[in-house]
Design a protein that fits this description.
The chain is 0% helix and 51% strand. It is mainly beta and 93 residues long. The chain has a single domain, classed as Jelly Rolls (Sandwich), CATH 2.60.120. Strands 1-8-3-6 form a four-stranded antiparallel beta sheet, with no helix packed on it.
Length: 93
């Protein structure tokens, strides 16, 4: 018997641009989250649509670089030019 339930896996990709976009929605039963850069444009991550290059956390513009974020809330992103990022999250059912 598992106390937290069975692990589930979710993946996806979003194109980040000059308008903030939600990368992942809130998931209260999330256990881990990894966001991965696909290109060379810097992406800034934050907790809501007000994320900016001055308030967000930098996800460097290096293809393949990733950032683990231990949160259950939403993650939003913004960039100075179109940039794809992907995510993989593990959560309990």
């Amino acid at each position: 018997m598992r106390f937290f339930g069975e692990n589930k896996l979710e993946t996806g990709q979003v194109t980040v641009d000059t308008t903030a976009i939600k990368v992942v929605s809130k998931r209260t039963n999330r256990r881990s989250l990894l966001i991965v850069q696909h290109g060379t444009n810097a992406v800034y991550l934050g907790k809501d649509k007000d994320v900016s290059s001055t308030t967000g956390v930098l996800l460097n513009g290096t293809a393949g670089i990733g950032m683990a974020i231990p949160v259950t809330g939403e993650v939003w992103a913004i960039s100075g030019a179109a940039q794809v990022v992907s995510f993989i999250e593990i959560y309990n059912d």
